[in-house]
Amino acid sequence: MEIPGNRLRPLLLKRTISAKHDQASNVRPLSVLEDTLNYLSNLWDSTEHPFEVVHDFIFDRTRSIRQDLSMQNIVGGQVIQLYERMVKFHVISHHKLRRCCGNSNISSMHHLNMEQLTKAVTSLYNLYEANRTSHSIYENEAEFRSFYVLLHLGSDSQPMGESISLWFRRVPSLVMKSKEMCFARRVLRYFRLGNYKHFICTTEAEASYLQYCIIEPYICEVQALAVCCVNYGGYKLNPYPLEDLSRLLMMKESDVESFCSGCGLQIYTDEIGKKFLPTKQTNFSHPKKVFQNYSLLQSERLERAAAECSKLL
Questions:
Q1: Angle formed by the axes of helices 179-193 and 209-233, to 10°?
Q2: Which InterPro entries match (predicted)?
Q3: What's the whole-model pTM score?
Q4: Which one of 48, 214, 216, 243 is separated from 113 by 20 to 30 angstroms, measured CA to CA?
């Protein structure tokens, strides 16, 4: 990706992550690192290049920013803000990279982005603790702490090296009681119990945009579970109205039809044009592809939050 001339460009390209033996004089001070991140933020919504190209450029340089901060052992509120912005970059990239098509390197980029997200968020949590002077918490701490819980969705593994039950013991009580953390814990519980209705409704009603970005990969899985339950649990002589399924899944009816087709199910239309899902179909299968062409949850609230969030990167 080519960048237009700018006074910050030499600073951006000065260090790379492979520079293992840099002299202390080459490590950028905090003020320069902040200016560099501000500059990178202006490239975030670039339409001149595909998102994966923009991501790749910013990814490498935010990683070197974190390396410079680590080498200098800088702490403080200003550093916390920088880390929050970089974590936000990785969370939104986690969402956007899944929607990129036609690039064979996307899977690798997505894996590397998740790897750096877990490292950045771990460093952020350490900074919260290192700078804590009382029983208060930072303005965005509850939301960013909730990411730890949401990153455990759909997996028995420990993506950040520690089980949730042990991690909870070290979380400040104010964070544990926050609406952000209570939301994350409920969503995790609904997911593990297979309570698709509460999972979908709670996510649509309460998730912040950043929380949604982490949850979204599992929404398709939960919606497929809902379709499966409707299909196998329904009465064969009473096909399920597609408009009712649309409300349950919180998707447009046309998208529900595509989704059911992706699950191997047939839809039929009656004489007045109303569409139904015949139940007890035996060829149900979980969709093998991610549906790229629409939002998995139709929510004006989330769309507004997404627009707001991008401006604050």
A1: 30
A2: SAC3/GANP/THP3, SAC3/GANP/THP3_conserved
A3: 0.86
A4: 48
Q: What are phi and psi of 258, to 5 degrees?
A: -65, -40
What is the model's pLDDT at position 11? 46
Question: DSSP letter string over 188-213?
Answer: HHHHHHT-HHHHHHHHHHH--HHHHH
> What is 52-94 written as a DSSP string?
HHHHHHHHHHHHHHHHHHHHHT--SHHHHHHHHHHHHHHHHHH
Number of continuous H segments (helices) and E segments (strands) in the chain:
14, 3
Q: Per the structure block, which two tokens stand in for 126?
A: 């350490």
Q: Are 124 and 84 in contact (CB under 8 A)?
A: yes
Closest CA to 138 of 71, 200, 83: 83
Task: Name residue 268's beta-bridge partners.
Answer: 276
Q: Quote the CA–CA distance of 78 and 90 in Å, as a whole number.
A: 19
CB 50 within 8 A of CB 86: no
User: Which residues have CB under 8 Å from 208's CB, separation 6+?
Assistant: 143, 180, 305, 309
Q: Which two tokens stand for residue 196?
A: 């698709």
Convert the pLDDT of each residue in 58-99 to its tens digit.
Answer: 999 999 999 999 888 888 889 999 999 999 999 999 988 887
Could you give the strand order of the β-sheet that contains 268-269, starting from the edge strand earlier in sequence?
A: 240-241, 275-277, 268-269
